[in-house]
Every structure is written in structure tokens, then in C-alpha cells.
Design a protein that fits this description.
Elements lengths: L1 H14 L5 H8 L3 H29 L1 H18 L7 H30 L4 H30 L4 H8 L1 H12 L12 E2 L1 H4 L3 H27 L7 H12 L1 H9 L9 H21 L4 H26 L2 H33 L7 H15 L22 E2 L2
Antiparallel strand pairs: 1-2
Helix pairs in contact: 1-6, 1-8, 3-4, 3-5, 3-15, 4-5, 4-8, 5-14, 5-15, 6-7, 6-12, 6-14, 10-11, 10-14, 10-15, 10-16, 11-14, 12-14, 13-14, 13-16
């Protein structure tokens, strides 16, 4: 439950912004570019702060780093509600602070999972992923219809309300969750030898491909749908790609057999994403819900399994830097994907072209899954894990 709640709070505050973004833009006199930057900054921070987050895990221990991340998330979320002339700086400063908090916590979570659940990392990681997804869903759906009226119609009030869940998560993490040996500082493998391993790059680029599919499709489904952003196809498309993820993750949580290292599992996810992308390009109006749901199912399968991959296969010294590389590459691509889709539309003025990056990324998911290398480490629990030959360890 603790891991689910942490995962929930690492996403809910982000998806609570789009429902009130028009009011933020109007009150702070932002351009559309500035409003877009407000939602894109967290994704960029995830990419830039992932490796520094792994370094902090090496120096402070995973439990302390997750604690620091929750502190920054709580304070940053509350700071965005600062009134008066400093409001614009507070919104952007708070967004950066909360995003950095999430980014440094993310490499620490897999380390905690391996220490707490050495025999059930896969299921524990799926639970965290389910928390992430539920946070996205709740943040996106309750903010406007429930929190805006509750707080008197102002967007600042909703930001203050959304500072409460991470504050509760922080209190529970510090007071109720035992540090055990997750507070222990682990001698961490240095990054350079890790980057020479084919499996690290294969997993990182596969994570990037699924992220690009998800974020780019979510951004451009409304514009590429027949009838435009206000049409029924656009609404069904967004419902399908996001709504399918909860039942998909619940089904994965019930699977006891290991699948995070199975090529066939990633091939199935890539195949579903490719089928949905092709269907959306060729016949998005009939039926839009089906095609987008296929994309969402394929992406959620790969996302959940890849988050579980480092703690499931790597020794403790490797988990945080491996996760950091994967997150940095993946969220970097997620930041660039929607921009590439917009560039395609600007260059061609053809309605369907923003989905070209999605098509390329879905094909990459299949190609990478077909050639996914075996991990070079002994399975955790199958003897004393050791880093790959020639890999140096970095003292904390």
C-alpha cells in the first residue's frame, strides 16, 4: 500500500494542471507557448534529474532520497499557489521544484522495491505503476468538476488541495515505513561501464519508444481525429488510450510468472501499439475507441514491465544508475515526441502527420523487443550478485 501511495503522488499533481491550465494562462497572462512549457517542464526535469537522482541514492540511501523527493514535491506543489505579483515566478518555480522531487525519487523507488520484496519485485513494481496510473487518472478527472467548485472556483485553491496528498505520503513514509536496509548507502556502479552494456541501451531505448508513443499520441489524438478536437472521435480516442491502462495493469498484477525479461511480452506490447497506430492512421473514426485502446494497452504493458526490469535483474549497485539511464533517455524522448509531431503538421499541413513519430516509435518497440539482450548479471537471490566484468564501483 505504501508503494502504491507513493506512486500515486508522483503523478497526480502533474495531471491536475491541464484541467485548470486555461485559467492559469488567463490569470497570469501567459502565451500558449508559456502554457505548454508549464506542462512540458516536468517531463524535461524527469530526463535531466534522473542521473543526479541516482547519484543521491548512492550517497544518501534510497529511503532518504525518496523522502527528499516527497519533501520537494509537497513544497513545490504548495508554492504554485502563491498569490500576488510573484505568482508567475511561483508557478514556474514550484513546477520545477516538484518535478525535480519526483525525478530524484524515481531512481530510489526500484532500490526500495528490491530490498523490501526480493522474491516479488515484479508484482511490487506493477503495484507502483498502478499507483502512477491511478494518480494520472484521478488528477485529470476530479480537479475541474470537484476541486474547482470546492475551492471557490480558483485554480490556486486546487493547487493547495493537491499539496495535501504528498504531505500525507511524506508523513506516512517517515513515520510508518521502516527504513530497514533501504537507508543503507550502496556502493554504486559508475555510469561509464554501465553505458557499455547493450542491455542498458536496449531497455532505455525501448522505454523511450513506448514513452514517445504514449505522450505523442495523447497530444495529437484530438487534432488528428475526424471532426477535430471537439468531435466524438477525439473524446473516444483519449478515453481509450488512458482508460484501458487500469484494467491492463490490474491483470498484470495477477500474473505470477515472470515476464519482465520475456521478449514475447514486449513483442506483444509493441504489436498492440503498432496495430492501434495503424488503425488510427487508416480508420480512426471507425472505431476510434478500439484503436486508441490498443495503443494504450501496448504502452502500459511495456511501461510496467520496463519499470520492473532493473530491480528484477540487476544487483543492488546497478539498480539506481540503470533506472536513471532508462528514465533520462525515455523522458527525453517523451519531451521531444509531441514537438516532432507538431513539426510534421507545420511542415505538411496534413491532419494525420503528427502520428508519423508514433508510427516510427511503435515499429521501434517491435524491433527492440525482438533483439532484447539477456541481462549480464546473476538473478537476484540466486547467489551473491556481481557487477559485469570490468565494471568499477564508485565509493559513496
Amino acid at each position: 500500500m505504501a508503494t502504491w501511495w507513493v506512486g500515486f503522488n508522483l503523478r497526480a499533481v502533474l495531471l491536475a494542471v491541464p484541467p485548470v491550465l486555461s485559467a492559469v494562462r488567463r490569470d497570469l497572462h501567459l502565451s500558449y507557448t508559456g502554457a505548454g512549457l508549464l506542462t512540458a517542464l516536468p517531463v524535461l526535469a524527469f530526463a535531466l534529474a534522473a542521473v543526479p537522482g541516482a547519484r543521491l541514492v548512492a550517497r544518501l540511501g534510497a529511503h532518504r532520497v525518496v523522502t527528499l523527493g516527497l519533501v520537494a514535491l509537497t513544497l513545490g506543489t504548495a508554492l504554485r499557489a502563491w498569490p500576488g505579483p510573484a505568482g508567475l515566478a511561483a508557478v514556474f518555480g514550484g513546477t520545477v521544484a516538484l518535478a525535480v522531487g519526483i525525478a530524484i525519487a524515481q531512481p530510489g523507488v526500484p532500490v526500495v522495491l528490491q530490498r523490501w520484496f526480493p522474491g516479488g519485485v515484479q508484482r511490487a513494481s506493477i503495484t507502483v505503476t498502478l499507483g502512477l496510473t491511478m494518480g494520472e487518472l484521478v488528477g485529470a478527472t476530479v480537479t475541474r468538476p470537484l476541486l474547482v467548485p470546492l475551492t471557490g472556483g480558483g485554480w490556486r485553491g486546487t493547487f493547495l488541495v493537491w499539496a495535501l496528498p504528498p504531505a500525507l505520503a511524506l508523513a506516512g513514509w517517515v513515520l510508518l515505513v521502516p527504513a530497514r536496509n533501504t537507508a543503507q548507502v550502496v556502493r554504486q556502479q559508475s555510469l561509464r561501464p554501465l553505458l557499455r552494456l547493450p542491455v542498458v541501451w536496449s531497455v532505455a531505448v525501448l522505454f523511450a519508444a513506448q514513452g514517445l508513443v504514449y505522450f505523442t499520441a495523447n497530444t495529437w489524438i484530438p487534432e488528428t481525429a475526424p471532426g477535430g478536437p471537439g468531435g466524438s472521435a477525439a473524446a473516444l480516442g483519449l478515453l481509450g488510450i488512458n482508460g484501458i491502462q487500469i484494467p491492463c495493469l490490474l491483470a498484470l498484477a495477477m500474473i505470477r510468472r515472470p515476464f519482465v525479461t520475456r521478449r514475447s511480452f514486449y513483442l506483444l506490447g509493441g504489436g498492440l501499439a503498432l496495430a492501434g497506430t495503424a488503425g488510427w492512421l487508416l480508420a480512426s473514426a471507425t472505431p476510434a475507441l478500439l484503436w486508441s485502446a490498443l495503443i494504450g494497452a501496448g504502452v502500459s504493458m511495456n511501461f510496467a514491465a520496463l519499470l520492473a526490469y532493473p530491480p528484477a535483474v540487476a544487483p543492488p549497485a546497478v539498480i539506481a544508475p540503470f533506472s536513471a539511464v532508462m528514465l533520462a533517455v525515455g523522458y527525453g524522448a517523451a519531451f521531444l515526441g509531441p514537438v516532432a509531431g507538431g513539426a510534421c503538421l507545420d511542415l505538411t499541413h496534413l491532419r494525420w502527420t503528427p502520428f508519423l513519430p508514433v508510427l516510427v516509435a511503435a515499429l521501434a518497440m517491435l524491433a527492440l523487443a525482438a533483439r532484447l539482450p539477456a541481462p549480464p548479471w546473476p538473478a537476484p537471490g540466486g547467489g551473491a550478485p556481481a557487477p559485469p566484468a570490468g565494471a568499477g564501483l564508485e565509493a559513496p
